[in-house]
Write a structure and sequence with these properties.
6-stranded mixed sheet; 26% strand; homodimer; alpha+beta
Chain lengths: 325, 325
C-alpha cells in the first residue's frame, strides 16, 4: 500500500491513499484522518485502507482523482520522534576523514544514531530554506522506517514486526556546523535543519524482495541540478533497521510514528557515486588533493528517487530547490 | 495561570485549569481539548482560559473539583520537540570532570544543547522504569519553557515573547551510557530515557519577579528517599532561555509546543547542594578521593519542588519511584 499526506492547513495534514503507479489518489475519508492516527491504530484501519487501495489500483474507485505530489507534505509532517543512524560504514569512514573525527572504537559494533528534530518535516517539492549559503548546505539521501509502538528492551529479532511503512528521505545538513557540534558531544542541532521526505510512505511488500534483512535493497538515484551524482544501493547497510531499532529501544519505548533513518546511503564501490556532497568532496580531496564540488547555494535543485528494476520510483520523487530563508 | 494535563486514555491527554493554590481544578471543556492545542492557539483560547482560572481562584467555578496530581500526565505528554541545554556552567564544569571530557573552548559563549526524545514524557508521580540498575540511574532537576511558534533566525531579544509556559523537569539519565555517547559525537540517546515533569505548567506571571532575565529565579529542592540533597537556584543560569532559544532557532523554526530545558540547576555555592547524583559524586571524589553516594536503584524515591519565598510550590511536586522496567 502507498500512503501520502496532503496539506489541509492542519499540523498533521490529511491521509490519502495513492495507487501503486502513483497516478491516482483518494482521501481516506471515513477511515482515518491522518498518517499518525493510521500508524497508531494500524490493525484497526488496515482492512479498510487496503480495500480502498485495491479498488484504486484496478480503477474501480469512483472518488479517485489524479495524484498531485505538489499537494504532499511529508508522510508524517510532524512525527513523535526522529532517530537517524549512520548505518553505512563507507559513509561513516569518509565523513570521519572529512571532519577529521577522532577514532570510534565501536564503529562496527554499535550503531551511531542521533536524535533529530521531528516537529517540522518537509514535503517532496517544497523549497527548502536556509539562513545562509556559507554554512555548507548539503543533502543526505536516506531510507527510513515508520514504526508502531516499540516496547523498551525490544530485541533485533522482534523489531521487524514493528516496521509499518518505509520512506525515502533527504536529511538536509549544514556541514560548516557539524564538526563543532560533534566535538562538543551533545550531537547535532544547528547542523541539522528540517528534513524532507518523498511523497509516499509504502508498506514493505511494495518493494517485494528488495525489502531484505530489514534493509531497502534499492539504488537511490541522486541528482544535483540535473546531473546524477549517486546511485548507491540501500542493501549495503552495515546495521539493519532491526538492529538500529533494538539499539534505540534499549532504555526507552519508541511510540508509534517514530521514524528511524538509515543515514546517508553509501557503497564501497566508487562507481555508485555519492548521496551527499561531503562524500564527493572528501573523495576528490583524497584522489586529487582538492575538493572541487561546491556545497549548494540559492536556486540549486536536488532530486532523489529510489528505483525498482523496472525503472519506477516506489516512493515518488524528492525534487527541491534551495532557497534563502 | 496554572494548567495541567489529565490522563484520559489518549496520547495527548486532556487540559485542566488548576487553581493558584493547587487545591482545585476544572476541565477546559468547551475551550480547548489539549495543552498542545492551547499552545498552538494561545491567543484564541487565552481569554476563556483566564476567565475560568479567575473563577476557580475565587471559588466561583461550580464545576471545580479537588486537584489530583495522581491523574496528571506531563503537561505535554508528547511534545513536538525537546531541546535540553546545559546552561549552568557549574554543572558543566563538574560533569566535565566526572566524565573526563576534552576541553570545550566555546563553553562560556555557545550553549550546549542536545535534542532529546519528546514522544513519551512522564507525569509527576508515575513510577519510572529502567531496564537495569547497573546503568548509573540518575536524576537532573531542571526548569524549562514551552514555546509558541519561533521563526528561524529569531534573536535573543525577540525570544522572550515566545515563552508561553514554564515547567519543572526531572531529566532522568543513565550515567554509565553518557560518556560513550558523548565521545561518539552523535549526542545522547540510550543515556536519556523518558523525562518527567511536575504536574502544572505555569504562565511566567505565576512566579512574578522570580521570572527574571528569562530565567527561573527559584530554588529547586531535591530529595532522595526523603533526604534533601539540593536547593540550587535557577537564577544562576549562565545562558538565559532567550539565548538558548536563539541558538536553537538559528537554522530551523521551532514549532509551537517545543520545550527548552535549562539543564541541571547548579550553583557555584556548595551550600546549595546538587540537583543530580553525578555532581554529588564528583564533589565527593574531589574532596575526599572517593565517590560515596550511590546512583539510584529499585524503589528509591526522588522528590523535586521549586519553592516560592512563602514556601509554596508553584509547579507542584515531582515524586517518583525508580522501578524495574
Amino acid at each position: 500500500m502507498k500512503l501520502a499526506t496532503y496539506h489541509d492547513g492542519s499540523s498533521d495534514g490529511q491521509l490519502w491513499v495513492v495507487s501503486r503507479d502513483l497516478q491516482r489518489a483518494v482521501p481516506a475519508v471515513g477511515i482515518v484522518r491522518t498518517m499518525l492516527e493510521a500508524v497508531e491504530e494500524w490493525d484497526l484501519v488496515l482492512p479498510a485502507l487496503t480495500a480502498l487501495y485495491d479498488r484504486l489500483n484496478v480503477s474501480q474507485e469512483a472518488f479517485a482523482v489524479p495524484f498531485e505530489p505538489k499537494r504532499c507534505l511529508a508522510p508524517l509532517p510532524r512525527a513523535p520522534q526522529w532517530l537517524d543512524a549512520s548505518a553505512f560504514l563507507n559513509h561513516g569512514r569518509l565523513m570521519d576523514k572529512a571532519f577529521d573525527n577522532p577514532p570510534n572504537l565501536d564503529f562496527e559494533t554499535i550503531p551511531l544514531v542521533y536524535q533529530g528534530a521531528s516537529d517540522d518535516f518537509r514535503g517532496p517539492v517544497a523549497d527548502i530554506e536556509f539562513p545562509d549559503d556559507s554554512l555548507g548546505i548539503d543533502m543526505e539521501g536516506e531510507f527510513g522506517v515508520i514504526l508502531s509502538n516499540v516496547p523498551m528492551g525490544t530485541s533485533a529479532d522482534a523489531a521487524p514486526s514493528h516496521v509499518r511503512l518505509l520512506v525515502q528521505i533527504n536529511d538536509w545538513s549544514l556541514r560548516a556546523l557539524g564538526p563543532r557540534e560533534m566535538r562538543a558531544g551533545f550531537g547535532f542541532l544547528q547542523a541539522k535543519p528540517s528534513t524532507a521526505f518523498a511523497p509516499v510512505a509504502v508498506t514493505p511488500d511494495e518493494i517485494a524482495s528488495h525489502w531484505q534483512d530489514c534493509r531497502v535493497g534499492l539504488p537511490l538515484h541522486v541528482e544535483i541540478n540535473g546531473r546524477e551524482v549517486g546511485r548507491a544501493n540501500g542493501g549495503e547497510m552495515h546495521f539493519s533497521f532491526a538492529e538500529i531499532i533494538a539499539h534505540c529501544a534499549r532504555t526507552r519505548m519508541l511510540t508509534a510514528g517514530t521514524i528511524i533513518g538509515s543515514g546517508t546511503v553509501s557503497n564501497a564501490d566508487r562507481a555508485a557515486g555519492s548521496s551527499c556532497i561531503s562524500e564527493i568532496r572528501v573523495i576528490e580531496l583524497l584522489d586529487r588533493g582538492v575538493a572541487e564540488t561546491p556545497f549548494l547555494t540559492w536556486g540549486d535543485r536536488v532530486r532523489m528517487e529510489a528505483r525498482l528494476p523496472d525503472g519506477t520510483a516506489p516512493f515518488g520523487v524528492i525534487d527541491q530547490r534551495v532557497a534563502r530563508g
